[in-house]
Structure formats: structure tokens, C-alpha cells
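Hey,

Quick one before I head out. I ran the complex with 2-acetamido-2-deoxy-beta-D-glucopyranose overnight. Inputs first:
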Amino acid sequence: MVQLEIGAAVLAAVLNIGTVSASNNGLALTPQMGWNTWSSFGCDVDASVILDTTRQIVKYGFKDIGYEYIILDDCWSDGRNATGYLQPNMTKFPDGIKGLADQIHDLGMKIGIYSSAGTLTCARYAGSLGYEDKDAAVWAEWGIDYLKYDNCFNEGQEGTEKLSFDRYNAMSVALNKTGRPILYSMCNWGVDGPWLFGPTIANSWRIAGDLIDTFDRDDPQCPCVEKEGLDCKVPGFYCSIMNVVNKVVYFPSKAFPGAWNDLDLLQVGNGAMTDEEYITHFSLWAAIKSPMVMTNVFAKIDARTLSILQNTAVLAVSQDSAGSSATRRWRYFVDDTDVFGQGEIQLFTGTLSGSDRLVLFLNAGTKDREMNATLEEIFWESGVGGTAPQIQEAWDTYDLWGGRMSNARAAGIIAGNATIPLNMTAQGGSPREVYAQTPPSNSTALMGTRVGAVKPGGKITVHAKAHGVVMLRLRQQLDKEKDEL
Ligand SMILES: *[C@@H]1O[C@H](CO)[C@@H](O)[C@H](O)[C@H]1NC(C)=O
Ligand SMILES: *[C@@H]1O[C@H](CO)[C@@H](O)[C@H](O)[C@H]1NC(C)=O
Ligand SMILES: *[C@@H]1O[C@H](CO)[C@@H](O)[C@H](O)[C@H]1NC(C)=O
Ligand SMILES: *[C@@H]1O[C@H](CO)[C@@H](O)[C@H](O)[C@H]1NC(C)=O
Ligand SMILES: *[C@@H]1O[C@H](CO)[C@@H](O)[C@H](O)[C@H]1NC(C)=O
Ligand SMILES: *[C@@H]1O[C@H](CO)[C@@H](O)[C@H](O)[C@H]1NC(C)=O
Ligand SMILES: *[C@@H]1O[C@H](CO)[C@@H](O)[C@H](O)[C@H]1NC(C)=O
């Protein structure tokens, strides 16, 4: 019975039942991509920081591979005017937010803004609780395309799903009333299970406290270090990559096109993790279908960071039109641990458009190791006990990190003397159209490199580095005779 219920939920996710955007604004049909000011600039934001960054994002080609939203987080405001409308700090934004929005639009990007479903924002500027209609109206008038909506100073209006829903729904309704499509990104830190009500009112909802730039170090300020998944309904911050991943695995099917579990801002390149750990972070966020929102200081970006953030083979998983979050097939604890706790290994699998299959091996232990997955495990969602028809097929395996651009090329992009490997704009369409091809193009830029094949009933063995992943795309061999193993 339990098996059947899980099967139905997974089937709904696979078939994308209800693919209409949750908030009916037609936005975020694939997870939103962009850049946010908070992790690197905090309250030190102004028009030049944002415009300089936007120009760099465009110049380095991030726009041409799908990064779209420039999101101005807290500290832009100067309170309310005499008639109760929010006004910007005119010292920081001499042209107002409207003037800033116009310039960002002229650069081909979209603009996001920030507020809180409370009386104050987290940095104690005027919040939107009770002012939803006025605030939404003024943002629409300024040309805002995206709202990140925080949870500070909520006057205790939480503790049940209904209290949180009512507070967040008020803004959802207000945004809709403006008539302007504004992507609605709820940020209530996982309190009251936003995956239960977020899908009906918002484009994304944060599932946990703020992420920091750390792989698996537990911090007492990140709640529910011991408890995972559905029991964790309290706020907090300083959460690690592994902590957040081990929370979201319990409700992947709550996400669908237009409505996503948000694992929080990307920390890739911010300095406290290794290259391998940033690859793992970026891969998991793409596989689980979290929004992909960068936080870098682009004036200081290095080649290694650029080549992670611009891995279009991994972004093609994030932006795949099936919009199906990878699920965790298994998790085992291992003996090699770091000082922060138990080491573990996990296998994620996911549906991709055109019958392709995602396989992600996560080695969160401290030793490199071999990891294995059988086709039965990989296609477990399509039939119990080895009955999935895909098990009888032969598959080519592509390593999604195999085509990572060289350091020389990444450095050249930063220096302005090299081109990006795949300029989706130059192909005549938008990045979304390129990612939406079914089946996706077999170019290295979108598929990585072919590393092998697996025959019917077979298994895949990979070498996974410590704190690393192996992320594969499986594509069915049209002719089984080609099978090489
Ligand atoms: C507002 O909601 C209606 C009904 O769900 C929907 O048809 C419409 O597209 C929405 N408009 C905006 C701007 O989000
Ligand atoms: C990508 O191609 C477009 C259209 O040809 C061009 O305007 C743009 O500068 C190119 N982007 C980069 C980063 O070279
Ligand atoms: C507005 O910005 C200026 C310049 O950064 C700063 O000195 C001032 O305190 C800001 N005003 C508010 C209300 O934050
Ligand atoms: C307050 O701001 C709103 C929206 O920008 C504007 O329409 C209104 O005229 C302003 N009121 C005053 C008293 O400045
Ligand atoms: C994977 O398979 C190899 C070879 O069969 C074996 O040595 C290894 O122990 C397996 N690894 C795991 C984690 O089961
Ligand atoms: C590109 O610029 C970098 C930094 O100035 C330089 O090291 C590199 O040699 C240049 N490459 C080419 C192909 O001109
Ligand atoms: C991609 O597919 C086409 C058509 O099936 C084939 O001709 C080509 O060799 C493939 N390219 C790669 C890199 O696999």
C-alpha cells in the first residue's frame, strides 16, 4: 500500500501532472537563473554596484546561456512617503529604482527586488505586511520583474500552515492584481512547510535556513541538524550544502514547472569550499531543480569559478523542459568521516526530456571511492522489482563535467579575448529555446562527453572523488548492436 502511494506521487512528478504555473503568471517554467546582491554585498548596494555587475554578466556571456534576473536584495529602501508608498534611497539610486530597472532592461536583463512579509525587512527597512497592494503596485510601476519575499518581523504570524499561507498569499494576490508578470520567490526559510502551500501561490519557496559557503559543517544556528525532512519547521541560518540537500530529498515531487523548491543562493566561487565541493553544490542544485542564483563579485571572478557557473551541460539539466526534480534513490553511511560528522554516499536519479535519464552519484565521504548503480536502481520509478522497460535497453553514458571549459579559455573570457563555447543568443533563439530542445542536442556543450555505455540489465561503476559527484546523462542507444560493453 505504501509502495503504491509513493508510486502515484512519483508518477505525478514524472508525468508533470499540473504543469500550469502555480501562481498562474506563466513564469519560472524552468528554475529561475540570475544573480543576487546579498551574499557578497549585503547592505553595501547602490546603482553602480548593480549596473557594473550587470554589464559584467552580459560581457562574460552569462546572459547568453540563460542567466536572466538581477536581484536587488535588502537595503534599497528609504521607507514610505506621505501617502504610504515605498520610496528608494535616492543617494544609492539617483535615478530611482525605475531608472535602474530601465537600464537593466536596456542591457537585456530583468530586475528583481526584495521585501519581507513582516513589519520590517531583515535589515529593518519598511516591510510589506499590511501594505501588499501598495507595494506590489509601486514595483509594477517601476518595471520590477521578480520579488524575493522574506520572513523577518512577521509579528508572530506563523506556527501553522494557514498563518504562513495567509501572509504569503496576500502578496501573491497583490502581485497578480498589478497585471504585470512578477516572479514570486518566497523566502520563509522552510517554516510551516512552505512546500505544502507554496506550490499553489508562488514560483519558488525556500525550504530551509540561509545557506553558507560550507560543505557539511554543522552550525547550531542552522536548525534541525539532527532531524531531517518534514519534522524541520523552524527558521535559522548558517546551513551547509549537505544539511539543505538532506532536507529537500523528502519532498522533490512538490516542485513542478512554475513552482520550485529553493535551496538558496549559489555560493560557487565565494572562497570557502574546494573546486570539487563547488562542482558538487552546483550539480545538486541543478539536479534538484533549485533556482540557480549566483552571488559572485564579478570584478574578481576567477577562471575556475566561471567554468563551473558556465557549464551548460549541467545547466541543461536544470533547465530541462520536463521540469522533474531528481529524487534520492539510496543513501548509505560510510566509515570515512571528517570532523563534522558521518560520511555518506547517495544516488540521485531523474527524468529528462526525450527519454534521457539523469544519474548523479554523490560521494560525501572524505575518501575517493568507486560507486555503482544498476539500471534497476536508475529506473526504479518506472517499475518495481526490475520491471521497468528501460532496463532492457542499452544506454550511452555522458559525463556532464567532461566538457568543462579549460582554465585558459575561461581566463580568456574574463580577459575579453575568448568566446563562450555555446552562445545561445547567436543561435537565433533564447537560451530557454535551446534548453527546451527535445531530445536535447548531442553537442558537448549540452551533453558533456561520452564516457561509455551500459548494456541491458547492466550497471554503471564510477570513480567519485571525496566530497564530489559524478553526474551522468544516459541516452538510449537506438541500435542495441552498437552496445560496447
Ligand atoms: C492572475 O491570475 C489569473 C488567474 O489565475 C491568471 O490567469 C493571470 O495570468 C494572472 N496574472 C498575472 C499578471 O500574474
Ligand atoms: C552572443 O551572440 C550575440 C548575438 O550574436 C552577441 O550580441 C553577443 O555579444 C554574444 N555574446 C558573447 C558573450 O560573445
Ligand atoms: C541612503 O544611502 C546613504 C548612502 O549609502 C546612506 O548614508 C543612508 O544612511 C541611506 N539611508 C537609509 C535610510 O538607509
Ligand atoms: C508616494 O509614492 C507614490 C508612488 O511612487 C507616488 O505616486 C506618490 O505621489 C507619492 N506621494 C507623495 C506624497 O510623495
Ligand atoms: C562498486 O563495485 C566495485 C566493483 O564491483 C566494488 O569494488 C565496490 O565495492 C562497489 N562499491 C560500492 C560502494 O558498493
Ligand atoms: C588573453 O588575455 C590574457 C590576459 O591578458 C592573456 O594571458 C592571454 O595570453 C590572451 N590570450 C589570447 C589568445 O590572446
Ligand atoms: C550527434 O548526432 C548526429 C545525428 O544523430 C550525429 O551525426 C553526430 O555524430 C552526433 N555527434 C556527437 C558528438 O555524438
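The CA atoms of residues 62 and 310 lie 7 Å apart.

Talk tomorrow,
K.
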